Amino acid sequence: MDRPGEVYIERIVGQDGGGPRGRGACDVGRYGIHPRSDGPVAAGRQAYRTVGVESTEELLGAVINELAGGAVLIMAAAPADYRPAERATLKIKKKSDALRIDLVRNPDILKTVASRKAADPSLAGLFVVGFAAETHDVEAYALSKLEEKDLDMICLNDVAKEGAGFSADTNIVVVFTRGGGRFDFPLMTKKDLAAGILKKVEIELAAREQ
Length: 210
Description:
About 25% of the residues lie in helices and about 35% in strands. It is of the alpha/beta class. It has helices at about 55-65, 110-120, 140-150, 190-210; strands at about 5-15, 25-35, 40-45, 45-55, 70-75, 80-85, 105, 125-135, 155-160, 170-175, 180-190. It has two domains: about 1-80 and about 95-125, no CATH class; about 130-210, CoaB-like (Rossmann fold, 3-Layer(aba) Sandwich). The strands form two sheets. A nine-stranded mixed sheet has the order 3-4-2-1-5-8-9-10-11. It is built from four helices and eleven strands, in the order E-E-E-E-H-E-E-E-H-E-H-E-E-E-H.
């Protein structure tokens, strides 16, 4: 099924709602995009807005609508790479032993964001974080994605490792940055890892201002 997962757009705003004015004066407003969910949702002391989507194409549109030069886009979703060429409006009846469903390629959201960023000077300050879930040649694939999709940072998830991946409450991640930096997060809970990744984003943003 073409059901994208969760995407967060982290927008750095000043206390008066404007752009960044130094690390001490910045809050992080969280904006989540979830399948079939609309409206404000509490996230601890902060709030984020949700935008309901049901397909990768809708997810792309929702992401594009939120892009801004002072934002941090964290693409943690795993949207479907392909979708059925035709959508049935009625139940498909059983007629034979085999059933063929033709698939077509879904849009690549990160590539589209990279193209928009390159074409629009107002998006020059957009900080984009991608994720790579790999099973072999993991670092090579992650570094290739970092360059190919013009990312500022990529989080490599070797799902073949014990305690990592989708079926565990823990994870192991290696972060690579545009400037050639590397940071290894050892086995930890996904909640702690999320906080660590956000802290790494904060460090990279601070380095931009120096």
